[in-house]
Write a structure and sequence with these properties.
Radius of gyration: 20 Å
Number of helices: 13
Helix content: 40-55%
Strand order of the largest sheet: 6-5-1-9-10-11-12-13-14
Shape: globular
Strand content: 15-25%
Largest sheet: 9 strands, mixed
Distance between the termini: 13 Å
Number of strands: 14
Oligomer: single chain
Structural class: alpha/beta
């Protein structure tokens, strides 16, 4: 791993002052980070329910009886795959246009700092709300997303512009991302609208820009919808290099939809990639990360953090690092390494790193062998 990190550091040093442009959407959530009380010692102090397994046991014991679990709000933050991805990309200095659910008629306060850094913002509706219950071994996110039902292709055009105007905006970007397919009910309709009305107006660029997709836990969607969405993502290949990002749970769920049985992370990733017909499939389990690009499999280890400060948004920060690396033209291994370093910094510091901060993180990991 040391050689990879040294190579990444050198690449980051030579790419200082990059001038990347990106267009990201479509969701937006206000995240309420919550801890659950196990034992309360007094009105000020308590011990947490530390693991999802412990929480599950507490719930199971209440079956047929009932129980009361105290929720302690720790902080409010911007949420949603699109805003967290965008906020992290902005920390790396990209020029970014955001289209999504940030507030109507006014922007919700949690997004104001992000909006202030964006080149342009189009807010489609009010954000959803997520109760993000944090544990040492993961998180449970409970979302309220009624407002996102209004994000249709017609609404998209009425706020952002005509197909010609949308095409002109996309033509300037290095990366185009329409995130959170699971929670934006009409996302597939919007993808189809882009394919039918906007793609014919796009320029034929010598190097295709990237298009990044994050389904965001599709467990609740049916097989037919998931397969249809995968076919739409493949159609983006006509004008983009399409990248699908999955976590470990999502990898095996999507593989199962294609009739692929669990065969370990590497074999399952390769088998699913061969079914998708896209440029890249990237997967981020907790302790490592891997991808398939142009028919080849790549993998790097991650800087595992046993006691994370914040996990909600870690996957989006990994995606930020990976996509940023790809947009810079880094090879797959360096892109994966930048992904795990970006998320590694985030879970330890509860914020996305700046360009200089991630360079320091990479350097320290390379020099010390751990972080």
């Amino acid at each position: 791993m040391k050689d990879i990190l040294q190579s990444l550091y050198s690449n980051l040093e030579s790419n200082k002052g990059q001038n990347l442009s990106m267009v990201i959407g479509l969701d937006g959530f206000v995240d309420e980070i919550i801890h659950l009380v196990d034992k309360r010692h007094d009105f000020e102090t308590f011990t947490r329910i530390l693991t999802i397994a412990d929480f599950g046991e507490r719930i199971s014991r209440a079956s047929g009886l009932g129980t009361n679990i105290e929720m302690v709000p720790m902080k409010f933050k911007l949420g949603g795959n699109g805003p967290i991805l965008s906020n992290a990309l902005l920390s790396y200095g990209v020029k970014l246009t955001y289209i999504g659910a940030l507030g109507d008629p006014t922007i919700h306060p949690v997004f104001e700092e992000m909006v202030g850094k964006c080149e342009k913002v189009y807010s489609l509706c009010d954000p959803g709300h997520s109760d993000a219950v944090e544990f040492d071994d993961g998180k449970i996110i409970m979302g309220k997303l009624t407002g996102l039902n209004s994000i249709t292709w017609e609404k998209f055009k009425s706020v952002v512009g005509t197909p010609k105007e949308i095409a002109a905006m996309i033509d300037k970007c290095d990366l185009f991302g329409m995130e959170n397919w699971t929670m934006v009910p009409y996302m597939s309709q919007i993808w189809q609208g882009l394919i039918d009305e906007v793609f014919p107006l796009l320029s034929n660029r010598p190097v295709k820009p990237l298009a990044f997709f994050d389904l965001a836990d599709p467990e609740k969607r049916n097989k037919e919808d998931i397969l249809a969405a995968m076919k739409l993502i493949a159609k983006f290949e006509s004008n983009f290099r399409a990248v699908l990002g999955l976590n470990e749970k999502e990898l095996f769920e999507i593989a199962k939809v294609f009739g692929i049985e669990d065969d370990g992370i590497q074999n399952t990733t390769v088998k699913l990639y061969n079914q998708l017909g896209i440029y890249c499939l990237v997967v981020h389990p907790i302790k490592e990360a891997c991808c398939c690009i142009n028919g080849r499999y790549y993998e790097v280890e991650g800087p595992f953090c046993e006691k994370p400060v914040l996990t909600t948004g870690a996957g989006d920060n990994f995606n930020t690092g990976f996509c940023f690396g790809q947009a810079l033209g880094l090879d797959p291994v360096n892109s994966l390494a930048l992904g795990v370093c970006t998320s590694g910094f985030y879970v330890r510091n509860a914020k996305s790193p700046t360009y200089e901060e991630v360079m320091n993180f990479v350097k320290q990991w390379a020099e010390n062998g751990s972080i």
